[in-house]
Specification:
Two copies of one chain form a homodimer.
Chain A lengths: L2 H19 L6 H8 L3 H7 L3 H25 L4 H16 L8 H9 L4 H24 L7 H18 L3 H16 L1
Chain A binds a DNA duplex (30 and 30 nucleotides) through helix 3.
DNA sequence: ACCGTAGGAGAACGCTCGTTCTCGCGTCAA
DNA sequence: TTGACGCGAGAACGAGCGTTCTCCTACGGT
């Protein structure tokens, strides 16, 4: 097995376990077991667990935002693209293994102790916010709408993570619709 | 020192440390050091750390909601009481030692492993939501407004926790004002 | 065939931390 | 006075886990 595939398998296992059970309750040994990558190899690829965590968040960030953008772009009307974000959230919340926002969860677990993880979370949230801002601009809406839309999305993610269910997405979408219409 | 004051001192120390540094990075020994309550006493009062965590969240819940309600009630007009919630959030976010929402953070840290902690978090969020619902009803506004207002507040809390600063509260308040005005 | 190297399995190490135990001291009832 | 008891200080125990080390096997180049 070459380094590149070992890295991917390690990250696949790390993502599944970290997201599903939390970071601190997953040991490096669990990742070895789930990935088939030996401890020696793991530590060659990621000299410390923290770096594996950061790599997990980075890779997930790219995929998460990519999928969101791909979903939204299916909607040709710029105004409706904003609402499509909430549709996408609703589909995400409905997934079998949905366990809340990986970054919010990671921040709660490690934000106070790992500056790198905290940076990663802030970067992800900033990127998401920037994306929303680009949608708002493209729709010819005032910039001031970005903040509220972002807060609705964050509130929906954290609430869906805690209570389960897709209702927060629907509520957020209706609120977003109302805010957009008011402008 | 009698049991009641030992309990209070233990909870004072636990709250300060758990909230400030996260739960998992605070050991029972740290709590002993900060509270002056011996380990033996601590384990008499709280047979396991998890119970101390639950007691911390419970007591903080009572105080948090009490302070919010006290602040909101200073506003005689029912419609404005809703916005006062966001003013209160803004003041909270500005506090020196603000480190996000204790319940969201705890859920990220322990929600996956401790059912009792998860229950406590859900109960707190439900109580907060119920309180918002009572304000919405008192103001003669439609029930459907509760969800969006709750999501804005949650989004503001989680965002302020991650990025710092009070801006999320201001953004949420403006959005809330707009939603209320749009009915 | 032989050596050097990479890699895997898993033991080992060291530290943290939740929890319990030991010991000694002071207190109070009889 | 004495003995039982409560309590504090802190050592001790045991588990978990991040990280490293040992040992062994396989293989590629000469």
């Amino acid at each position: 097995m070459d380094s590149a595939t070992a890295r991917e398998q390690a990250l696949d296992a790390a993502e599944k376990l970290f997201y599903g059970r939390g970071i601190q309750s997953v040991g490096m040994d669990d990742i070895r077991g789930a990935s088939g990558v030996s401890l020696k190899r793991l530590y060659q690829l990621f000299p410390a667990k923290e770096q594996l965590v950061v790599a997990y968040l980075e890779r997930r960030d790219v995929r998460w935002r990519g999928q969101l953008a791909a979903y939204a772009e299916r909607q040709p009307d710029p105004g409706r693209r904003i609402l499509a974000v909430f549709d996408w959230l609703e589909e995400w919340f409905a997934e079998e293994d949905f366990r809340g926002c990986a970054w919010i969860n990671s921040y709660g677990e490690l934000g106070a102790r790992s500056e790198r993880v905290a940076d990663q979370v802030r970067a992800h949230k900033q990127a998401f916010r920037d994306y929303l801002a680009s949608l708002v601009t493209a729709a010819g809406l005032p910039d001031a709408l970005t903040g509220p839309l972002f807060l609705l999305a964050e509130g929906a993610m954290v609430t869906a993570g805690i209570t389960g269910g897709t209702r927060p997405a629907a509520e957020a979408r209706e609120a977003a619709r109302s805010l957009v219409a008011a402008r």
